[in-house]
Amino acid sequence: MQDTLKHRGMRNKLVDTVAGKGIKSKAVLEALRAVPRHLFMDSGFESHAYQDKAFPIAAGQTISQPFTVAYQSELLDVQKNDKILEIGTGSGYQTAVLLELKARVYTIERQLELFKKVKLFFQKMGYRPKKLIFGDGYKGLPEEAPFDGIIVTAGAPEVPKALLSQLKVGGRLVIPVGQDEQQMTLIIRKSDKEFERKTYGAFRFVPLLEDKN
Ligand code: SAH
């Protein structure tokens, strides 16, 4: 599979759609324009890649909807060289968008099948996160903390405390919170002990699962 003019044309339309839904960040829209989403999907779904929809990937998980990826990326407000932790690598699509935004990305996936697949895929495509980790992102990544930003791409029943403690002062955590339906939530660390919490629209994500061992 490759990236053709036809794919680029469909991608331009997708970017227009996402912009039309309210995404304003030029940097985020350009990142979406740059990432060949069809290559992150199983070939059976390739023809759907430029619809603004989530689709199944392996292990019962989904590649997030482009609008959702753009929305979370905009809330994260990534600056060049920011150290970003992503929980839920999945297909790697959101990871690739963060890399296009010139972040230093640390990303964690708990499904072995997806982890192995995305590892090979990143190598093939030349995407270079600082670290791609197989494990439980519920605990964050204390050995690399603190982070300028943390993004959770699965629905969390509540905000994991470990993630709050791994934010820099001024750092941002973007996390969908809720059981069946999630409220997009932005938490900004104002000082060592103070956190500001803002909530946005409703979304539906696959669940963030905690490995209790
Ligand atoms: N950003 C991904 C979204 C994939 S869906 C994409 O656009 O493709 C969410 C992912 O979170 C799934 O792959 C799921 O396996 C993973 N996940 C769920 N709980 C997790 C946890 N505790 N730690 C790490 N990954 C987790």
Automatic annotation (TrEMBL):
<dbReference type="GO" id="GO:0032259">
    <property type="term" value="P:methylation"/>
</dbReference>
<keyword id="KW-0949">S-adenosyl-L-methionine</keyword>
<feature type="active site">
    <location>
        <position position="64"/>
    </location>
</feature>
<dbReference type="GO" id="GO:0005737">
    <property type="term" value="C:cytoplasm"/>
</dbReference>
<comment type="function">
    <text>Catalyzes the methyl esterification of L-isoaspartyl residues in peptides and proteins that result from spontaneous decomposition of normal L-aspartyl and L-asparaginyl residues. It plays a role in the repair and/or degradation of damaged proteins.</text>
</comment>
<dbReference type="InterPro" id="IPR029063">
    <property type="entry name" value="SAM-dependent_MTases_sf"/>
</dbReference>
<keyword id="KW-0489">Methyltransferase</keyword>
<protein>
    <recommendedName>
        <fullName>Protein-L-isoaspartate O-methyltransferase</fullName>
        <ecNumber>2.1.1.77</ecNumber>
    </recommendedName>
</protein>
<keyword id="KW-0808">Transferase</keyword>
<dbReference type="GO" id="GO:0004719">
    <property type="term" value="F:protein-L-isoaspartate (D-aspartate) O-methyltransferase activity"/>
</dbReference>
<dbReference type="InterPro" id="IPR000682">
    <property type="entry name" value="PCMT"/>
</dbReference>
<keyword id="KW-0963">Cytoplasm</keyword>
<dbReference type="Pfam" id="PF01135">
    <property type="entry name" value="PCMT"/>
</dbReference>
<comment type="similarity">
    <text>Belongs to the methyltransferase superfamily. L-isoaspartyl/D-aspartyl protein methyltransferase family.</text>
</comment>
<dbReference type="GO" id="GO:0030091">
    <property type="term" value="P:protein repair"/>
</dbReference>
